[in-house]
Design a protein that fits this description.
alpha/beta; TIM Barrel; seven-stranded parallel sheet; 11 helices; Pol/histidinol_Pase-like; protein tyrosine phosphatase activity; protein phosphatase; hydrolase; Caps_polysacc_synth_CpsB/CapC
Amino acid sequence: MIDIHCHIVPNIDDGAKSLDDALEMAKIAYGEGIRKIVNTSHYHPNFEYKKGEELFENIKEFNNILKLNNIDIEVFIGNELYYSEDIIDIIEQKEFYTLNNSKYLLIEFPPIRFPKNIVDIIYEIKIRGYVPILAHVERYKEVQENVNIIYDCINEGALIQVNSSSIIGKNGKDAERVSKILLDNNMIHFIATDAHSSTRRRPIIRETYDYIVRKYGEQKAEMLFTQNPYKVIEDKEISIEYPVKYEKSKGFFKKLFKK
């Protein structure tokens, strides 16, 4: 499997705090079946996280350390770009890393301020040659209240990532509910760990993979955990299933009286 959203390289952002922590994360990930990881360090306008050439060198060094420790995982460079009102200006400055230097750009949003003009933002990003991947959308309050925001985003050209822990109920009932609605309606393209440490928010993915196989089939699981992520790191085009607009099921009595 390939994890396209992870904070494994130590002392970069709010992810792994030490080399020992990072190596333990790598061992956990390997045991879960992960063989490639995109290190998506936060790119945040208000925090002095490592970036640019320094980030590149840190990733290169960490890959060498993984080899020395006989951990057969390859780590790729990337950023998780934090949304702000001047995001288009930030994108045009090109100081961040896309996922393995591809056209795919991972974007997260403030937890309580999902932009109302998100479709316009996606359009502006697309015309600049990038494909936006919206990170852990199941966590945002606005999406929990109206999942069809995501339907509109996909139709505008965005791709969608959900955290593996959300699908199996480890991020609360609302995140679990939304994740399953999105799965049922072809509105997820990647499942990733968003792991930050070896003890809390670990790179756990196997239980979710097995759940997807049982509920949706092995082909769907391979697409979400391996095939689409592989196309990202290889900078290839991703063909998606058509999303289905979500409609709340009517209660029994409403259905009865409608007849």
